[in-house]
Write a structure and sequence with these properties.
Elements: E1 3-7, H1 16-29, E2 34-38, H2 44-47, H3 60-64, H4 70-73, E3 75-76, E4 82-85, H5 94-97, H6 107-112, E5 121-125, H7 132-140, E6 143-149, H8 158-171, E7 177-184, H9 191-203, H10 217-221, H11 229-232, H12 237-256
Parallel strand pairs: 1-5, 1-6, 2-4, 2-5, 6-7
Antiparallel strand pairs: 3-4
Length: 257
């Protein structure tokens, strides 16, 4: 049985999608079978893995509305062993369309259950908000991975996210746990990045990954070419960092599962 990890933080610009793309690509590169589910209406995880998001007949939107099966949505990415359930801007309307639908929080969970044993890892990229899409993801997941940007307001909104995770655990998915926190956009030239890391470690009673993702120009460029960093610039510090994070995720899973 594979592990399902949701990547969530309602604060925007913290590296959720960058982490979703590059962690999934690094896990696949290490020989794992990976499914990435794009739950963000911006569809950046989809396009960042070489998939034309507006040309897909079936996406996560049609799946949530019951218009197709999850098998219909599966799209091959630019990476071997990495399959994507794509998303596009149509998904922005799904919350309104699901009003009054019984069990709407469990649509994704029920869909994924039929294919879960085919993958070593299922990663879910969430929008920067705590809405029905994020709740669906959390009801499907085993754990939540929280990217935190190394900036002054890093802890802002984090308590709200932790509260939401606890509510989901209490009312909808009792098995949900926090996978851990990963620091992103670390700038070794500034004292601020170091202070943020120490501050979060001192205030957060959660697992914190040893791997810290640096601020890296090549990492920022890669999505515009429809590639993960491991293909765009395989020897860059960004690529090496995500490979190290993937190793940590695999190792942590072997310890826990």
């Amino acid at each position: 049985m594979g592990r399902t990890i949701v990547i969530a933080n309602q604060k925007g610009g913290v590296g959720k999608t960058t982490t979703a793309i590059n962690l999934s690509a690094s896990l696949a590169e290490s020989g794992k079978k990976v499914l990435l589910i794009d739950m963000d209406p911006q569809g950046n995880s989809t396009s960042g893995l070489g998939i034309e998001k507006d040309e897909k007949e079936y996406t996560i939107y049609e799946l949530l509305l019951g218009e197709c099966s999850i098998e219909d949505c599966l799209s091959e990415s630019i990476c071997k062993d990495l399959i994507v359930v794509p998303s596009n801007i149509n998904l922005a309307a799904v919350e309104i369309e699901l009003i009054g639908t019984d069990g709407k929080e469990f649509i994704l969970r029920d869909s994924v259950s039929s294919i879960k044993d085919k993958y070593d890892f299922i990663l879910i990229d969430c929008p920067p908000s705590l809405n029905v899409l994020t709740i669906n993801a959390m009801c499907t997941a085993d754990t939540v991975l929280v990217p935190i940007q190394c900036e002054y307001y890093a802890l802002e909104g984090l308590s709200q996210l932790m509260h939401t995770i606890e509510l989901v655990k209490e009312r909808l998915n009792p098995d949900l746990e926090i996978e851990g926190v990963v620091f992103t956009m670390y700038d070794a030239r500034t004292n601020l990045s170091l202070e943020v890391v120490e501050n979060v470690k001192g205030n957060l009673n959660q697992n914190i990954y040893k791997t810290i993702i640096p601020r890296n120009v090549r990492l920022a460029e890669a999505p515009s070419y429809g590639m993960p960093i491991t293909k765009y610039d395989t020897k860059s510090t960004g690529a090496e960092s995500y490979r190290m994070l993937a190793e940590e995720v695999i190792h942590r899973g072997e310890e826990q599962w």
